[in-house]
Amino acid sequence: MSAKYEVKVSERLGRYIVAAKDLKAGESILSDNPFILGPSNDTSLVCYNCYLPLMSKFVVCKLCTVVPICPGDGCPQNLPKWHTEYECDFFRTLKLKRAVNPMTMVQNVGFLLVLRAILKKDVDKTSWQEFLQLETHLNVRKGTSVWEYCENTYKFIQSLGLLDNSEDDNLVQKVCAAIDVNSFEVRGPPVPAIGCSEILRGVYLKAALMAHDCVANTHIAINDGNVLVCHASTDIKKGETIYYNYTDPLKGTAIRQQHLLVGKYFKCTCKRCQDVTEMGTYMSSALCLACKTGYISEISNEKWTCHSCDSEYESSEIRRKVQCCSDKLAVINKKDEKELEEYIKNISLVLAPNHYLLLDAKQRLAGILRDAINSQPRPTKKMMRRKIELCKELLPVLEKLTPKICRIKAITLYELHATMAQLAKKLFDGREINGSQYLEELQNAEKCLKKSLEMLLIEPRNSPEGELCAKALEDYRELKNSISGLMLGYTLRATPLLTEEIKAQFRLTKTFNVGNMFLK
Ligand SMILES: C[S@@+](CC[C@H](N)C(=O)[O-])C[C@H]1O[C@@H](n2cnc3c(N)ncnc32)[C@H](O)[C@@H]1O
């Protein structure tokens, strides 16, 4: 297979990758194993071997008698193991030489990633050198609070005797910075029966070279084996830069830029950041009090202007209003349907309909309604209609901000289809719609599910999204069979479609000409 990308260098981006040939939406670009993977600074105690959270109990590794690992039957077999032989040897020697107390490791789980990176310097010299070449912005970090924080990491690493005198003074600072600037968020393994998992950080040496754009042209997934796979989310022409979005596309420009400035040390100047309307979504805009129909956006540090009637407003006044809406969202009970509805009603009088705070509240509300619809024996039509409405409001925004393939869009379309089909059945069973209306509704649901599947099919099978894809394929089979049944005058199709047949259909029609999880 010829190379899909090549590495370039520019003054603005540093190293970055471009397409080495024309790439089609849905085509895989690269797959990457983690150079290092581990807990974030604020992760609670996890097993050093499999990264499952250690709720209250743990044992120490029998060989080195230092690192905390899963008690009972030990780590589940299917999970990748991270407490390697060389690490175990290192700790065993350390224990003999310095009598290290296992509690030291328990208390310093946040330093594990740095420790594991430094341990690589003697066992995987090539990757270690590649890691050291990653952008660090060390000069900008010097003297800041993050530098101070990393001094503690330095003291800890030094106390373990991992650094010899010939070592660069700033090595630990460099490692911490390379991790901060280049790591991806990785979902840790879910706790059996509970489902929750820790958020880990992983450095992927190939994927780290991707530059950022707030409207990316890639789709990234990390499977249960921690392998990162990157696909083109839109068609990419030979020579075009391959971009990944380092931030949340559903946040407004000010928040995204702040995140990039503080965490990645650059000011984003992409098309979306330069457009006050944010690709026509008005995601950071408020309602104009003068004309009552237009939206106002921040055109300079001092002024907000209405796109419709040109009325002007003081920035400080509008920023205060937006902050007030944001503060309210922070304090309401986001698991309560009524509180969310009330919040949406109130801030809709102040903010543009697609403002990111409204979208946030609507996503949460859709999540509550999904859970209620799925758990109640007789969910109401009102609930279903509201969930459909919320999904339909979210989709056009996603279409503008994340063209073609996008995980949130796939999940939203899946949720939309499920409720459309459920509502149609309820109405048909209650004789509120006739057979042909029922058929039409199911066909509309099928269109949504098909679009969702076209995106879900690139998700790795061994990931939660891959599991959703398997479920969606099964739903698609059932839906197609119901539609055929209805078309044949409610007689069952003689040979119902099988899942394999459906998969084959998707392989043939997979054109991808349509477009961290939708429901919060
Ligand atoms: C994950 S690294 C990417 C690899 C890096 N360019 C290198 O040479 O190692 C992130 C860094 O790349 C640069 N970068 C990425 N996207 C950028 C963008 N859109 N504008 C400016 N700098 C960008 C910034 O220096 C940022 O901190």
Automatic annotation (TrEMBL):
Write down the superkingdom of origin: Eukaryota
A molecular function annotated in GO for this UniProt entry is:
protein methyltransferase activity
Q: Which residues form a coiled coil?
A: none
**Could you tell me which residue ranges the SET domain spans?**
3-247
Task: Note the InterPro entries from the entry.
Answer: SET_dom, SET_dom_sf, SET_SmydA-8
Name of this chain's protein: Protein msta, isoform A
The species is Papilio xuthus (Asian swallowtail butterfly)
